[in-house]
Design goal:
Elements lengths: L16 H13 L3 E4 L2 E5 L3 E3 L4 E4 L3 E5 L8 E3 L7 E11 L13 E2 L2 E4 L2 E11 L2 E2 L13 E12 L2 E3 L6 E12 L2 E2 L2 E4 L6
Parallel strand pairs: 1-4, 2-5, 3-6, 4-7, 5-7, 6-9, 7-10, 9-12, 10-12, 10-13, 12-14, 13-15, 14-16
Antiparallel strand pairs: 8-11
């Protein structure tokens, strides 16, 4: 009695990090929009948005972390001094929390993390899989879908932040943040200095 052979396993996903980062940097340098074609892109490191980076998906665009990456999918390029004029639109960002692993007791990352950004729009963004293993206060933040730290003049519109290990959206400090039509399991606001 012969059994049929199982089909071969699917090939591992390719790492699109370098190509995506190059496209983002080139478009930003020209003050142009980086438009991503429909499909699923896999990344092994955070995509860093420089000043004037505009990234938009055309159709269904999924950006997914490769297994064992343990990183945010998007961050602003200058985490110390901040960046200006950033836009993310029409993207699904999946940190694939089921395929990440704990390396230390303070492991944590947010799917999207922006620090000291002035002038940003996040529209029609789905973010899932933010990971937080550490216990507060060892890990005071991270694990969110979208984390905004000391950002100013930001619009979050049509966001869906779910299946994260901590807050769907966390806003830590900042001024003039507009949140419109958001779906998130938990939203935390900390240290507001001006209006919401």
């Amino acid at each position: 009695d012969a059994f049929p052979f199982a089909p071969p396993p699917p090939p591992p996903p390719t790492d699109d990090t370098a190509a995506l980062q190059a496209a983002i940097d080139t478009a930003a340098a020209a003050d142009d929009e980086c438009v991503l074609a429909p499909g699923t892109y896999s990344v092994s490191a955070s995509l860093r948005l420089p000043d004037h980076a505009y990234v938009r998906g055309r159709g269904r665009v999924v950006i997914k972390l490769l297994p064992l990456t343990n990183k945010s999918i998007f961050v602003n390029a200058d985490q110390v001094n901040g960046n200006i004029a950033l836009q993310l639109k029409n993207l699904i960002c999946d940190a694939d929390v089921a395929n990440q692993r704990q390396v230390s007791v303070t492991d944590a990352y947010s799917v999207l993390r922006f620090n000291r950004v002035t002038g940003a729009v996040f529209e029609d963004i789905e973010a899932l899989g933010g990971y937080r293993h550490g216990v507060y206060p060892a890990v005071s933040s991270l694990g969110e879908g979208l984390e905004l730290v000391r950002c100013e003049r930001v619009v979050v519109r049509e966001g869906y932040f779910h299946d994260n290990r901590y807050d769907g959206l966390k806003i830590r400090g900042g001024e003039h943040i507009l949140v419109n039509n958001l779906r998130a399991a938990v939203m935390t606001l900390q240290s507001w200095s001006e209006d919401i």
